Amino acid sequence: MNSANRHKRHKTDIHALPALTALATAAVLCLQPAHAQQSDTSASSTELNSVEVKGRRLKAAEVDKRALEAVSGGTGQVKAEDIEKRRVSTNEDVLKLQPGVFAQSSGGSDGLKISIRGSAVNRGANFFRSGILFLFDDLPVTGPGGTPYELFEPLGIDHVDILRGPNAFDLGSATLGGAINYHTKTGREAAPFEVRVEAGSFGYRKGQVSSGQVLGDWDYYVSLTKSHRDGYQDLTKADTTGIAGNLGWRINRDIETRFYLRYRKTENQVPGNLTLAQILDDPTQANPVNIGYKNAGYASTRIQPGSTWLANKTTFRIDDSSKLEAGLVWHDYPISIQSTEFKADWGYTDISATLNYTRDDTIFGRASKTTIGLLNTQHTDDGWQKQYQRVPQTSGARAGVAVGTLIRETHYNGADRVIHASNDLQATDNLWVTTGVSAINVERSAEVVYPATNNPYSRNDWTFAPRLGLRYNLQPDIQVFGNVSRSVEPPNDWSIVTTPPSFSASDPDISRRRAAGQATGALDIKDQTATTFEIGTRGTAGSHTWTLSAYYAKVWNELVSVELTPGVRSESNATPTIHAGIEAGLESKLWEFSPKHAITLTQTYTLNDFRFRGDPVFGSNQLPGLPRHVYQASLGYEHPSGFYSNLNLRYSSKAASDYANTYYAPSYALWGATFGINLPEQGWSAYLDFVNIGDKKYVAVINPLWNATIAPASNKERFNPGDGFGVYAGVTYRFK
């Protein structure tokens, strides 16, 4: 019998355990001494007690949690039951208390700064996200242009899986930051009808109506959301409307398919950046330039007029040991950015395909799991950006140019393809060895087509990223792990059209003169690569559950970005850098009378040590944009009646705002508290959430600069403030 058949037989025996239990019971009864029957031939019958064996279907989050614990590196998970106990405004609320994850909102908008292990350390708020693969239900949102953020409505999510750094290998991620995988609720987890309402400070209000059911072999889930916020800071008014849903069909025992839809539109005012002095004086103010635009009738806004994500994922169970998953995504995401003297309209449409084959085997009596996959995302046609004159100018190269005049048009194209294969082998009873390799294909092209430059740019490159990992079970509930992995991260295709070179204000061609200061074409920006070493442990002992990872990444050609003048950024590759850090999480039951009557302390700590390696100008300076230390904690109490409460803290150390390390955002500590009641049997829950109780004035997001001490004075406008003291309340009712 070959190893595959032995494994198949083993799995079949496990599934047959209830039947074997009943059979063994009957056999024991039949083996009673024969004279037992003969001793009373008048007995007409013997009554036997019935044996009932019950099982519970694992929830989707539990299945994914087990898979995360089988990764030889740092991972995490957030569940809806925890998310929905408090305000759920943006993904900052979702990703709290996650070690190694920096997620900070500015102005209450969806355009968070999100970073894992220093990914996109150079970006500010409201940018396409870089350095992390974002997915919905294992299917990509991230494309050659990066990750637009408007579709990430946090309500309607069942759970979120976080795989830090190269530990996202089997999802097709090749980035330094890893992957964040959002799993939508389905009809199997959702209530037949649910209503949720939130409201609070700064004119915040949000509503959700959702429904999910199982109808035979079909199930569905749909969620509609709408929110509004006047804003804590001037010019931060925001409105969003969206729908998310899916429809699943179990065609037969071995084939299941699910269709997904996400559509959302957002409109956010843009307040501009402030200096530290302005934030400490009055964090509710906006940048004077943006105020000037508003007073002239040209308020700065960022509009996503309606982004659509359509997808299908079909699973084929080949046999008890193997399956094949195929996915297809169509993603359209137009944008209109109106925050400087220009209006920039963008058009992007991506199509993605995924294919993943997994197989469980037994090799020399040891378990083995093999994964082979493909992730392919590319623009269906040229992406484009058109810049128009938005605000009248009285001086300079664009003096007298009519509002609405086309200034520059740029076309982009690109594709990201990852072919990956890995194996997880049980080398001994307690030791697992993970091996893998990815082949990565990157296509990038760009051209400024107006004013014409005849300077097209194009490249098509292949590279490889290997991975080796170990994990060892010291005890059933305690594990140590380590890995060494390679990562490859290409630049976003829009970022390669950068300055310099730029159009000149003295150009004899009037159309080129009007585009003065804007990039004339693309630069050959190299892919960022890194080799990451990681060791860590996870487990449970007594009343404590922990996760701990320490990593050290040597990075080459790090993608860096800096704002030269308002609205004009330069992109380039840095000299060699180091990204090192610690990601720690600890949950401790300080007192537990019963599973639903306890006091729990949850703590996370993140060390970010990101620096140059002997740069000719900056030496070993810290890379700007992220704090070196972040500590979060939540002390919670839960009562059997359904009442719960917690006191929470977020501490952030100071952080550099420029590569010269001359200008810093100061450290801060934010306190919060939540009180709520959850009565699932009666179908409703409610909460009261207090945020930034001390009304601390602090910097939430940094927009990095080369050197803040160099003129002009606007170089010190690097910061976006966080919200002041706020109170929020919410009620949810689930109809059964």
Tell me what the structure shows.
- The protein is mainly beta and 736 residues long.
- Helix content is 9%, strand content 51%.
- It is built from nine helices and 38 strands.
- The strands form six sheets. The protein has a 25-stranded antiparallel sheet that branches.
- The radius of gyration is 28 Å and the shape is globular.
- The two termini are 51 Å apart.
- Residues 1-48 have low confidence and may be disordered.
The rounded Rg comes to 28 Å
- Main beta sheet: 25 strands, antiparallel
Structural class: mainly beta
The number of helical elements comes to 9
Number of strands: 38
Distance between the termini: 51 Å
| Weakly predicted, low-confidence segments | 1-48
Indicate the mean pLDDT.
91
* Overall body shape: globular
Helix content: under 10%
Descriptive keywords:
51% strand; globular; 25-stranded antiparallel sheet; 9% helix; 736 residues; five-stranded mixed sheet; disordered N terminus
Topology record:
Layout: H1 3-15, H2 17-30, H3 35-38, H4 60-68, E1 75-79, H5 80-83, H6 91-94, E2 101-104, E3 113-116, E4 133-136, E5 139-140, E6 157-164, E7 178-184, E8 193-200, E9 204-215, E10 218-229, E11 238-252, E12 255-269, H7 276-281, H8 288-295, E13 301-319, E14 322-332, E15 335-338, E16 342-347, E17 349-363, E18 366-379, E19 383-389, E20 406-426, E21 431-450, E22 457-475, E23 478-489, H9 510-514, E24 528-541, E25 544-556, E26 559-565, E27 568-573, E28 577-594, E29 597-612, E30 629-638, E31 643-652, E32 655-656, E33 664-665, E34 668-679, E35 684-691, E36 699-702, E37 719-721, E38 726-735
Parallel strand pairs: 4-7
Antiparallel strand pairs: 1-6, 2-3, 4-5, 6-7, 8-9, 8-38, 9-10, 10-11, 11-12, 12-13, 13-14, 13-15, 14-17, 15-16, 16-19, 17-18, 18-20, 19-20, 20-21, 21-22, 22-23, 23-24, 24-25, 25-28, 26-27, 28-29, 29-30, 30-31, 31-34, 32-33, 34-35, 35-38, 36-37
